[in-house]
Write a structure and sequence with these properties.
Elements lengths: L25 H11 L4 H8 L3 H9 L11 H12 L3 H12 L9 H4 L34 H29 L39 H8 L35 H4 L4 H9 L13 E5 L3 E6 L5 E7 L3 E4 L8 E4 L5 E5 L2 E3 L9 E5 L2 H7 L9 H23 L1
Antiparallel strand pairs: 1-4, 1-6, 2-3, 2-5, 5-8, 6-7
Helix pairs in contact: 2-3, 4-5
Length: 402
C-alpha cells in the first residue's frame, strides 16, 4: 500500500546555545582577563598609575566618570594592552558601547564640560565606602551568635542568684533577736568581794604570831656554801704505782717490770750502770753514680717507677737510696759513667758513645761485673779524682784545728 507522503516540517529544530551564541560586552571581556591575571582594581591602579574609578568606568563603559574626555582613548588602550587585548579593537568596542565619539585634542570639546554630579555622590570613587571594588568589612554584631548571648545571660542569672542567696544567709546569721523574760537579771556579785568578810577579833590575852625577821628569811633562802675540795699530795711518782696491788688488776699474778715495759727507779739506775750495746749493724755499702762527662741517666725502681732521670754533668754524682731491691739504670753515654762502691770506683759502664741498659745497681752486681777503674785509661776520671783529693786535703787541716 502506497502511503501518503508527509509534508516536510518548516519549524527549526531546537539547538543548545554555545559560548559564541552569547553576546559578550567589552566590560565582561576585560573583567574576565583581569580575573585570569588575579588582579584587583587597586592592583591595576598601583601598576598602571590609573585611578581605580577610571578602570571601573572603562569596564562599565561609563564616560561620565572621566573629567577630561581626551584622556579616555589613552586610558582604554593602556588598560587593553595591560590585559593582553588589541588596543584598537578595545577602543572601538568602547566607543560603540558607550556611544562615545573621539575628538581632536585641540578641539574645544576635547576637554568638555565636567559631568554634573548629584550632591549625594562622592567626588572620589575610592572615598565611597559602598564601592563595588572596595572589600566590605564585617560588622561587629555579625560575629556574635544568639546562642552565645543566651548562655551568657543564663550564667549571669545563675551567678546573681548564688550571690543573693549568700547575702541573705549572711543577713540571717548576723540578726540578733531579744526575747522578753518575766524577771530582769540582777547583779550576781558585788563590786568589792572582800566587803562581806568579817575582821578577826582577838582577846586581850591572845597575841598575834610573831613574824620572822629578815635575817631569818635571808638565811633560809641563802644558797648553801660549797665544800672546799681537799688536796692530798702523792706519795710518789706515777711510775711507782704497782698495778697488781691497786686498781682493776689488784690481786692478779704479778708481772715482772721488764715485761710490763714500765721503768722503775731501780731499773733506771741499772740502765745507767750497764755498758752501752750497739744494736744497729754496719751501714750497707753505698753506691754512687759518677759522671766524668755529660751523660743522660735514668734510674728505675723494681716496681717501674722512675727514681732519677737527668743529664749528669761532668763531675756530678748521684747517691742511690737504700732499697730492699736494687734499682736498674739506663745511660746514653756509657763511657762517661762510673760506679763508686764503698768509695772504690768501678767501670766504666760501657764503651764510649754507646747506650747501656738494665744495669743492676747493687754492690754485689757492680763489683762482680765491673773491675776497678783505671785512672790512667780515662783522663777525665783522673782529673775528677785529683779534684776530690784536693778537696779532702783542704778539709783535713780544718778538722785537726778544731
Amino acid at each position: 500500500m502506497i502511503g501518503r507522503r508527509q509534508n516536510p516540517s518548516t519549524q527549526e529544530e531546537f539547538k543548545p546555545m554555545g559560548f559564541d551564541d552569547f553576546e559578550l560586552r567589552l566590560g565582561d571581556v576585560m573583567r574576565g582577563e583581569r580575573a585570569t591575571l588575579s588582579k584587583s582594581l587597586l592592583d591595576v591602579q598601583r601598576e598602571l598609575r590609573i585611578k581605580a574609578a577610571h578602570i571601573a568606568a572603562i569596564e562599565a563603559c561609563d564616560v561620565s566618570a572621566f573629567e577630561t574626555p581626551s584622556f579616555i582613548a589613552g586610558y582604554v588602550r593602556s588598560y587593553a594592552r595591560y590585559l593582553g587585548l588589541d588596543p584598537d579593537w578595545a577602543f572601538k568596542r568602547f566607543c560603540v558601547e558607550a556611544d562615545f565619539s573621539p575628538t581632536h585634542g585641540m578641539a574645544p570639546a576635547a576637554s568638555g564640560p565636567k559631568p554634573q554630579r548629584r550632591p549625594a555622590d562622592v567626588a572620589e570613587a575610592l572615598a565611597n565606602p559602598n564601592a563595588s571594588f572596595v572589600p566590605r568589612t564585617e560588622a561587629f554584631w555579625t560575629k556574635i551568635e544568639p546562642r552565645a548571648l543566651g548562655s551568657v545571660l543564663v550564667l549571669a542569672l545563675l551567678a546573681g542568684g548564688i550571690g543573693y542567696g549568700g547575702w541573705s544567709v549572711l543577713q540571717e546569721v548576723q540578726r540578733v533577736q531579744l526575747a522578753p523574760v518575766d524577771q530582769a537579771p540582777g547583779v550576781v556579785a558585788e563590786l568589792d568581794p572582800l566587803q562581806s568578810v568579817q575582821p578577826i577579833v582577838t582577846a586581850e590575852n591572845d597575841a598575834l604570831p610573831e613574824m620572822p625577821r629578815a635575817e631569818a628569811l635571808d638565811r633560809i633562802y641563802r644558797p648553801a656554801a660549797l665544800d672546799v675540795p681537799k688536796l692530798v699530795s702523792r706519795d710518789g711518782p706515777i711510775s711507782a704505782i704497782d698495778p697488781s696491788q691497786t686498781g682493776v688488776l689488784a690481786g692478779l699474778t704479778p708481772v715482772a717490770p721488764e715485761q710490763t715495759g714500765v721503768e722503775t727507779p731501780a731499773m733506771e739506775t741499772a740502765a745507767l750502770e750497764a755498758p752501752r750495746v750497739q744494736t744497729l749493724g754496719a751501714d750497707a755499702p753505698e753506691v754512687e753514680i759518677l759522671a766524668v762527662r755529660p751523660s743522660w741517666v735514668r734510674v728505675t725502681s723494681p716496681d717501674g717507677s722512675i727514681l732519677f732521670e737527668k743529664v749528669l754533668d761532668a763531675g756530678e754524682r748521684y747517691a742511690l737510696p737504700k732499697l730492699e731491691e736494687a734499682p736498674v739504670m739506663r745511660t746514653g753515654e756509657s763511657g762517661a759513667i762510673y760506679f763508686a762502691v764503698n768509695g772504690v770506683a768501678h767501670g766504666p759502664a760501657g764503651s764510649r758513645g754507646s747506650v747501656t741498659k738494665n744495669i743492676v745497681l747493687s754492690p754485689e752486681a757492680l763489683t762482680e761485673k765491673y773491675a776497678a777503674a783505671d785512672i790512667a785509661q780515662d783522663a777525665d776520671l783522673a782529673a775528677m779524682v785529683a779534684v776530690a783529693d784536693a778537696g779532702a786535703a783542704l778539709i783535713a787541716p780544718e778538722a785537726n784545728g778544731q
